[in-house]
Structures are given as C-alpha cells and as structure tokens.
Amino acid sequence: MRKIILKIAGGIVALLLGFAAVIWLVWVPSASEPGYVFVAAWGERGAAPGQFNDPTGIVVHAGEVFVSDARNARIQVFEFDGRFKRQFGTRGDGPGQLGRPMNLNISGNELYVVDYWNDRIQVFTLDGTPLRAIGKAGKGPGEFGSPGGVAVAANGDLFVADFYGQRIQHLRADGSFVKQWGITGKIGIWAGEFNYPTDVALATNGTLYAADGYNDRIQVFGPNGKFLRKWGGPFALNIFGPFNGWFATVTSVDIGPRGNVFVADFYNNRIQKFSPDGTFLTAFGKKGHGPGQFDKAIAVSVADDGTVFVADYVNNRVQKWQPMKK
User: Fold this and answer.
1) What pTM was estimated for this model as a whole?
2) DSSP 3-state percent helix, strand, coil across the chain (nearest 5)
3) Is the pLDDT of residue 197 over 90?
C-alpha cells in the first residue's frame, strides 16, 4: 500500500513539474536580441537646474531630452550628453503653469505636456512658450480625471490615457471628442477595458499601443479602433510578475525607430522591448542606485539612432542606454 501511495505521489509531482515546465516555456520567453549597455546618468534630488524632484516623463527630439520634473512643476531640457540647456514652467493652474507634469510627446515642433493634477494637456513651443490647453476636469467627453499620457497623430488628433477615467480618449486637435476605449470610471480586465491607464503611443501606421497600468499589460488597437491584441503575463489578465514579458505596473510606452515597442516596467525596475506583435525581444535594468540600476523606471523614450533614455523616478535622474553590438 505504501509503495502505491509513493507511486501516486511521485506521479502527481512529476505531473506538476511537467505542467510548470510547459507554463514556463509558453509564458516566459527567452530574449531573442542582445541587450542594452548603460552609457551615462545625470541628476540628483533638488530644485536647481539639472536636479530633479520626481522625474515622471521623458521625450527626445532633435538632439534634446525633455524631462517632466514633477514636484518641481517644470520641464527641463538637456543635450544628449546630459548638459542642461533650459527649463520652463512654474507651479500653478494658469496658462503655462504646471501641477504635476507626467508623460510627454512632441509633434510638429510642439511639446505636449500631460498636466496630471490640472486635468489637461498643455502645448508649448520647444523653447517653452505656452500655446494652448486642452481639456478640463470631469467625466464627460473631452474631460479628464488626471491624464497620464498623450500621443499625437500626424493630423493633430490626440489620444489621451485618462487615468481615473479608466479610458483612452480620441480627440481632435481642438479637444473635441471623437471616441473612447473603455467604460468611463469602470475598471475591467477584459480586452478594451482598463485599470488606470498611464500612457499611449502611436505607430506610424496608426496602430495605438496603450499602457494599461495596473492591469500590468499593453493593449493594442488598429487604426480603425478595433482591438488587436494584448500582452503581459498569462492571457494578459492582470497577473503580474518579474519574468520576461510580464509586468509589475506599466507606466510608459514608446515606439522605437524600427517599430519596436519599449515599455517602462515600474516595479520590476527595468525596460522591456517587444516587436510590434508583442513578441518579447530583450530587457535591461535591475533594482538599485548604482550605474545602470533603477529605482522605479517610470518613463522611456527612444531616439532615432536607437539610444534609449529613461526617467529613473526614485533615484531622481535620467539614464542613457545604447544597444549592445551583435
């Protein structure tokens, strides 16, 4: 009898191990590309030029790096080597003033700043002159409950991650409402539903990538608005983890020069890279305070030459990485 019990127990253990191996092979992919190498970092906690108090957003354009310095209520601009160039923005809710600037975008030589606490998108020239504001607080069409990120189409249309609104809104350049994904104010885990969306990115072919923050996944929609796919953990159903292709809160998404998708994996202290269809390619970063380490990687932007810039939130700095040579 004892031998039978041991055989049954052994069989169950073998079955569980085999099941675990299948899960690992299916949902934990290996890297198929070389990683990235740390190049440089700049910044420290403070309010002086070149210092940060919670950097929360980043975008690169024409050899410059724009950074949302959230608690200092300003935008700082740097050369690619980290040299400070200029800053703009003061604390407040008036034109050109900022509450808590978050993710950034640049289109047509204009800087789009997500003004989280002021429930609006502000648009500036690249030298910091305020041009216009879009949106206001509310739950109606074209209104926001703390927006997190914005993408801009070639025709000026806006796609906005409405954080507390639990939706992605599509607006015209003047702020008029077109449509939305998600049910206003309702958290959900199924396709087209959201759990505090944080950012959006638009590919050149019109495909929209949404960082579904607390659902720990990326959702993808076609140019016609139709849901295409999602990824992040088993079935992309709000299952978080530290494995390749999994997330622990997604806070930023950007499209690289070859169409690959870069994602800031906040609590996993890393950046993950995917092909446009969601295939995991590589990742870089780990928790820490030394060179090449992150303490909450909150935002990512990729330059035309493939250099990656990351807002390192708790470490109050920007990091620069470059692709490893094959």
Assistant:
1) 0.93
2) 10, 45, 45
3) yes
